[in-house]
Amino acid sequence: MSSQPALAQAARRGDSFADSCSQLERRGYSQEEVVMALVILGSADAEADSRVTSMCDSYRQLRAMGFQPTTVVGALKMHGGELQAATDACLTCAC
Fold this sequence. Notes:
Elements: H1 6-12, H2 16-26, H3 31-41, H4 49-64, H5 69-78, H6 83-93
């Protein structure tokens, strides 16, 4: 069993999805941020770089506020990535 991350292995095979993920990681996003952004956006938007980076930023901001990953993903997905609405939803859930 290899200790290398799955994305790194896929990137070496020429997987374009993994290449996109690796590029975002090289730009400073964590693997968690990238994967969760793609979960929120779905595969249709995976190639839309600006949408993915925006979602990574929103995910990062909400996680930095201390919200759990599942809460953040649900709120961003429910509100179409709108950060303020997702923040309000996370705060409502935190009561």
